[in-house]
Design brief:
The complex is a heterotrimer of chains A (328), B (296) and C (345).
Chain A lengths: L3 E14 L2 E14 L3 E5 L6 H9 L6 E9 L2 E2 L5 H7 L4 E4 L3 H4 L6 H12 L5 H14 L5 H5 L8 H13 L5 E5 L7 H18 L2 E6 L2 H7 L2 E6 L2 E7 H6 L4 H9 L39 H5 L5 E4 L2 E3 L12
Parallel strand pairs in A: 3-8, 3-9, 6-7, 7-8
Antiparallel strand pairs in A: 1-2, 1-4, 4-5, 9-10, 10-12, 11-12
Helix pairs in contact in A: 4-5, 4-7, 5-7, 7-8
Chain B lengths: L5 H5 L8 H8 L1 H28 L33 H37 L1 H16 L2 H12 L3 H28 L2 H8 L4 H37 L11 H8 L8 H30 L1
Helix pairs in contact in B: 2-3, 2-11, 3-4, 3-11, 4-5, 4-7, 4-9, 4-11, 5-7, 6-7, 7-9, 9-10, 9-11, 10-11
Chain C lengths: L4 H19 L2 H30 L4 H6 L5 H11 L5 H14 L12 H36 L4 H15 L2 H15 L15 H37 L1 H8 L4 H39 L4 H11 L2 H29 L1 H4 L6
Helix pairs in contact in C: 2-13, 6-7, 6-9, 6-11, 6-13, 7-9, 8-9, 8-11, 9-11, 10-11, 11-12, 11-13, 12-13
The chains are: A alpha/beta (328), B mainly alpha (296), C mainly alpha (345).
Chain lengths: 328, 296, 345
């Protein structure tokens, strides 16, 4: 049993749209060890969600996946649907962004959790599944669990629904949990609570966690390693401390600078990253961040830098990385 | 449609959510085919029923002699045979088609104009006018259309014109409802608000702004409705109303053929087949158009 | 760890609470509101049909007495039947009668309209029920099979057949069926009707062809609708993604998740369609000689038998309005978002 639970290698995902080929993920490489937390950070359109869906095999039929995704020593790319399905729930589980729409509005909460349980272990009786549902709800710290089982999703608040989603995801005791913007739709307090819960569960259950987010601040607090994605590629990757101590990619630098800080003077303008993410249908040579990069040169426009380990444990793809500076 | 992962949205990709999107994946030409083929069929049917009798060798549909009655198919001069009183079947089929199509066209045209107007007024004005009109329309729609049509047609007596009036009670409320919904959708668009604010009078709004925007939908709906109107016209003829014999319409041909169903099934099957093909063509055309509009 | 009573009490309490919640609930108010709205619609329909019936040329007394009648005979009969009273008076009389349960008497047979309705309604009801059963029972599995593999062989074939089925006029279908099954194969009767009391199997035999004539169009329509809705759910809804992420089999996702949500749309459409359905029932009853209210209506229209026409029209309107109301109510009961109201903390 190796240390590495998930190995994503040169993952590419293409979509056929209107006769065009759109490459949503362009050569993504990273790995996750057992029990580790990896944060995948990026803007909308960076490919972070598509890549995570590829791991669990939930892309629409118009998607073409190539490259390699090795989960627990099993190659997932090219695997038959049935085989992929056998990994869902007990191997890899997923928690989604919008718990309002991610739960079936016409099904009681308990029934939805029981379904997760019984899908993993068909022989389980309804009573046993009910017990296990209660256990799971208690595990995710949902108050008044017994009553909640009989309620419908719309009767719960957003934070409670997300806890239910987590309970459902944990039903099969997965080795890897993917939290796709799991807290984005929640208010800040609830966000913190849910993240704490996830961390606690992870430590208790020895589960690996991939947190997908656009929030670098969140990554800083909870992740062991951070992968920054842009335009379908990984552009920087390092253990959290190292990344924040020595930010190399101008893009990551810009993301960091965009986080509003209490130390800044009131009413000072927010430092947003200028420009728009690129149109993935029009792939140009050179680094995709060029139009928005303060350090861009002609070399950046012509040749795309490769993603390499320039410093121990710290990989990036840039011709003009940021210099060392004092960590914030 | 549910919120897609934002990456997919930005990349401009959407999963195939309906036939239109699926057609996009396969290629736009397929959806064009879905409109062109039925359109050709409809044009062909119109051509055969309206134009061919004028230029080709088609005998009169009425006035046959009893001596020629019940000739089988492929008899000389009557390639589909003759009916019980000696009229040429082929000719009856063509002229009957013309009758049925004329009625359906008239009904739908009135539906678009009158129903469209009523619906646009209701949708645009809103308020009590809207509620009153909608209540009235609800009443008409709630009522089994055929029963109403039968009652009216019976009261007025069987004739082509009366059939059209009777069937209008069916098409006008239905079109009005669609027009109202479409107007509501259009009303809040920026250019409409701008026109309203600049004091454009209602008639001008109607003609210049509302009409061009709701007409495509109304036309598509009217096309889809051609089929059901023709079937209803047939039903009216069936119960003795509709177009009075000896003038043929597909409906009264089918009704007349019923009594000799076992002996001469073709009297029923020929107009039935014609009606079926026509309705299928209209339905396919309407569906093809609808998926094109919704795809865009 | 847990005993059998503890988990049981929670759901039981939740379900018993259903009644008390319903009573004070938005659901009940919703139903009452819809009922109140339905009444003006009913009035409107009956008034409209009264207007239509009475403003049309032709005269009941004339019809009854035939062409030979003298003007004074006609005048006498009219007075006798109350046809010479002013329009509004007649409407008011009729309305009064409806509320008190007296629908008048047939002008041609003298039988009370009420008893005519009572004897004819069950027949039509049985026919319509058969047609519905046939169409719904087949539409659901076919739509599921189509949605399982969209654009697959089964799907394409079903869509083709359903397009064809939608384009066939019910009376045409009826005649084709009669030709094939009654005339050529001689396995089913062409016309007539046998009450269930006189032989259930015979009763059913006589209803098969008429029910299929009406039901086939419905079947095609419902199949297409349900299929479209199912596909929309399966391809566009997040809870479907969650279900798949749980590892649930695709078939189960269809039947246990998507179908539940699609049924709402189906219920509404079934109710909305009832009017058209009843209209065609009239023609079908005529073709097959089934003694239901449709057949009765045609005869009454022929005879200008206004009380009967009015009674039947009223019943039709009531049925349609009640059906729509029932659909709304069903919707509000089945959709837990409406039934259980706002979220609790």
């Amino acid at each position: 049993m190796s240390e590495s639970l998930l190995e994503v290698n040169d993952l590419r995902v293409d979509f056929h749209h209107d006769g065009q080929l759109v490459r949503a993920v362009d050569g993504l490489t990273y790995s996750v060890r057992r029990g580790q937390t990896v944060a995948v950070i990026g803007e909308s359109g960076s490919g972070k969600t598509v890549s995570s869906r590829a791991i669990i095999g939930l892309l629409p039929p118009t998607a073409k996946v190539s490259g390699s995704i090795r989960f627990d020593e099993v190659e997932m790319v090219g695997l038959a649907e049935k085989a992929i399905r056998s990994h869902r729930g007990c191997g890899v589980a997923m928690v989604f962004q919008d718990p309002t729409r991610s739960l079936n509005p016409t099904m009681r909460v308990g029934a939805q959790i029981r379904e997760a349980i019984q899908t993993q272990a068909a022989k389980v009786s309804r009573a046993a599944a009910q017990d296990r549902s209660l256990e799971l709800l208690e595990l995710v710290r949902l108050p008044a669990a017994r009553e909640r089982l009989e309620q419908y999703p719309h009767q719960l608040s957003g934070g409670m629904r997300q806890r239910v989603m987590i309970a459902i995801a944990l039903a099969g005791s997965p080795k890897l949990l993917i939290a796709d913007e799991a807290t984005t739709a929640l208010d800040v307090t609830t966000q913190a609570q849910i993240m704490e819960l996830l961390r606690d569960l992870q430590q208790r259950l020895g589960m690996a966690l991939i947190m997908i987010s656009h929030d670098l601040g969140l990554a800083a607090s909870f992740a062991d390693e951070v992968v920054v994605m842009y335009a379908g590629r990984a552009v920087e990757r390092a253990p959290t401390r190292k990344l924040f101590a020595q930010v190399r990619m101008p893009y990551t630098r810009a993301l960091l600078d965009a986080i509003p800080r209490l130390e800044n003077a009131s009413h000072s303008p927010l430092a947003a990253v200028p420009g728009q993410p690129p149109n993935l249908a029009l792939r140009e040579p050179g680094c995709p961040f060029t139009p928005r990069c303060p350090s861009a040169t002609d070399k950046c426009r012509e040749h795309a830098p490769s993603f390499e380990e320039h410093e121990p444990d710290h990989l990036w793809a840039c011709w003009h990385p940021c210099a060392d500076e004092v960590a914030v | 449609m549910a919120d897609l992962p934002s990456d997919l949205v930005v990349a401009g990709v959407a999963p195939a959510a309906d036939e239109a999107a699926a057609a996009k994946v396969e290629g736009r030409w397929r959806s064009s085919l879905g409109v062109i083929v039925p359109a050709v069929m409809v044009a062909f049917i119109f051509g055969v029923c309206f134009i061919w009798p004028l230029i080709g060798p088609v005998p009169s549909p009425t006035g046959g002699t009893i001596l020629d009655s019940n000739l089988p198919a492929f008899s000389p001069g009557h390639f589909l045979g003759t009916d019980a009183v000696g009229n040429d079947e082929w000719s009856r089929l063509l002229y009957g088609g013309r009758s049925s199509l004329e009625i359906a066209l008239a009904v739908q045209a009135i539906g678009i104009v009158v129903g469209g107007l009523i619906g646009a007024i209701a949708g645009y004005m809103g308020g009590w006018r809207d509620s009153t009109i909608m209540r009235l329309l609800d009443v008409l729609i709630a009522f089994p259309g055929l029963v109403l049509a039968v009652a009216i047609a019976q009261g007025l007596g069987p004739s082509k014109l009366n059939t059209i009036w009777a069937l209008c009670f069916f098409s006008v409320p239905a079109t009005a409802r669609i027009a109202r919904a479409a107007t509501l959708r259009v009303r809040e668009q920026t250019f409409m608000v701008a026109a309203r604010l600049s004091g454009t009078s209602f008639p001008r709004m109607l003609v210049g702004h509302i009409a061009p925007n709701i007409l495509p939908q109304l036309l598509t709906y009217a096309l889809l409705g051609m089929g059901i109107i023709m079937i209803l016209e047939g039903a009216l003829s069936f119960v003795g109303l509709g177009v009075p014999p000896p003038a043929p319409s597909w409906g009264n041909m089918i009704a007349q053929g019923q009594s000799t169903l076992s002996a001469q099934p073709r009297f029923v099957f020929l107009p039935s087949a014609a009606l079926f093909i026509t309705v299928v063509s209209f339905n396919l055309l309407g569906e093809g158009l609808r998926s094109r509009w919704s795809g865009q | 760890m847990s005993s059998s009573t503890a988990p049981l009490s929670a759901p039981l309490a939740a379900r018993a609470g259903w009644w008390s919640r319903l009573a004070g609930s938005p659901t009940l108010r919703f139903i009452v509101r819809r009922l109140l709205l339905a009444i003006p619609v009913l009035f409107g329909v009956t008034f409209l049909s009264f207007v239509v019936m009475n403003s049309l040329p032709g005269d009941a007394a004339q019809e009854l007495l035939g062409a030979q009648a003298t003007p004074s005979e006609i005048h006498q009969l009219r007075a006798q039947l109350g046809l010479d009273k002013p329009f509004l008076t007649r409407y008011w009389d009729w309305l009064h009668g409806v509320i008190t349960g007296h629908l008048g008497h047939s002008l041609s047979s003298g039988q009370s309209v009420g008893s005519i309705l009572v004897s004819d309604l069950p027949v039509t009801f049985e026919l319509v029920a058969f047609a519905f059963l046939f169409s719904l029972a087949l539409a659901v599995p076919v739509a599921l099979a189509c949605a399982r593999k969209p654009n697959g062989v089964a799907d394409r074939l079903s869509m083709m057949f359903s397009m064809a089925g939608l384009s066939v006029a019910p009376y045409v279908l009826a005649l084709v069926l009669v030709y094939v099954f009654a005339v050529k194969l001689n396995v089913l009767p062409a016309i007539g009707w046998v009450p269930p009391g006189q032989g259930l199997w015979q009763n059913i035999r006589h209803l098969i062809l008429p029910a299929v004539s009406i039901g086939l169009g419905l079947l095609c329509f419902y199949t297409r609708l349900l299929r479209a809705d199912l596909l929309e759910q399966m391809q566009g809804e997040d809870y479907v993604v969650t279900a798949r992420a749980k590892g649930v089999r695709p078939w189960r996702v269809l039947t246990h998740h998507a179908l539940r949500n699609s049924l709402f749309g189906l219920i509404t459409v079934v109710a909305l369609n009832l009017g058209t359905l009843l209209g065609f029932t009239v023609v079908i009853e005529d073709i097959f000689g089934i003694p239901g209210i449709g057949h009765e209506l045609l005869q009454a229209i022929d005879n200008r038998d206004v009380p009967v026409i009015e009674g039947i029209v009223f019943v039709f309107a009531v049925i349609v309005v009640l059906a729509n109301l029932a659909a709304d109510v069903l919707y509000s009961i089945l959709d837990p978002r409406i039934r259980y109201g706002r979220p609790t903390e």
